[in-house]
Amino acid sequence: MQFVTGEIKTTIPYQRIAEGGLNNQSVTVHGAVHALREMGGIAFLTLRMADGAVQCVCPPGLLPEGLCQECAVELTGTVRAESRAPGGWEIGVEDMAVLSRPASPMPVALGKRKLGLHLDTELPLRPVILRDLRRRAVFKIQEGLVRAFREHLGQAGFTEIHTPKIVGAGAEGGSNIFRLDYFGKKAYLAQSPQTYKQTMVGVYERVFEVGPVFRAEKHATARHLNEYTGLDLEMGYIQSFYDVMEVETGFLARAMQLLGGAYARELEVLRVHLPDVSRIPCLRFDQAKALAAQRYGYQIRDPYDLEPEEEARIGQYAREELGSDFVFITHYPSKKRPFYAMDDPEDPRYTLSFDLLFRGLEVSTGGQRIHDYHQQVDKLERRGMDRADFESYLMIHRCGMPPHGGLGIGLERLTMQLCGLDNIRAASLFPRDRSRLDP
Prior knowledge:
The chain is of the alpha+beta class. The protein is 29% helix and 27% strand. The longest helix is centred in the first third of the chain and has 23 residues. The mean pLDDT is 95.
């Protein structure tokens, strides 16, 4: 009889080779043939490993017959310093076994420095294109952002939760919601975990979630997806919505510190410059609009919201005048904020809310929520919303809630801006937009 004990087999990662501690030592590693070229009988093979790629040198006669790009191999050889090799290290191959071979030639040569593909050409080939070293680096950095989010909030006393993605009412209102037939009942894909994370403030006080968000918006822009990943948090017993902004700033500082250390190789591959987040300036909505319009000489067209071009100008102003790639825009008009946003008691035309702009693009939205039952019912009714659709949500207000607030960060937008990508689809593994359900 055989028993399974949970032991995980480990192999030598690329990181250990890159650190230099294995110089002149024999190693056995595995990976895929990322690139292959033969010169005078000697083959230079780039082995793509889980966490990096290393040059391997095969002497004459050792190269397996028919070896090609994307063959999975296991090889044994000696690690040695080589200044001409990428990363400064290579493996002198002494033995190699082919574990599997592709059934057809690659649709694109992954070993090229730049693939040069248009995004519309690339996306149908995504399962293969993601093996490209630059594409892999984007999603390792994205991993680092999520890791920092969890680590920072975990240390700050937040509890991770998981909320339903099939719901009976839209958290944000409006028409941008996917409708479902749920066993004959009306249902929707969740626009946000908003009502549930507020509910859980009454349970744990501080909560967060990393999960999908669905928006049925018929757009075709470089900044929108119909399914994206939200980094959401909610916290109770706040004194001001600025408390929420402090937590976000702390997360960003933690993320940049983590990326600068554990993800330095990916940053180098993408030539990413990490922003300074030691402090982030704050501008009121009306102030920011006026300053940017005056500085760059244009007319304000929408007094209730920020247009994309306006966000870009305000981001430019923050960089040039305030020395920051980030800027918080506070006190958005009530007309453009959801039903749960608390109005400013000093001027109810505005809310105790904010957006965070990063290099001229909104990457998060947050603020203080209404915690009083009567105030919440009144705002729902003033907006013509049916309170019957929100009975389970209103239960928390009726049964008592502390002052609380929170935010939602768009992971793909944050990744796009950090990595200097020109389209949000490049920051999504398998993007979903109006025309794309595959792959």
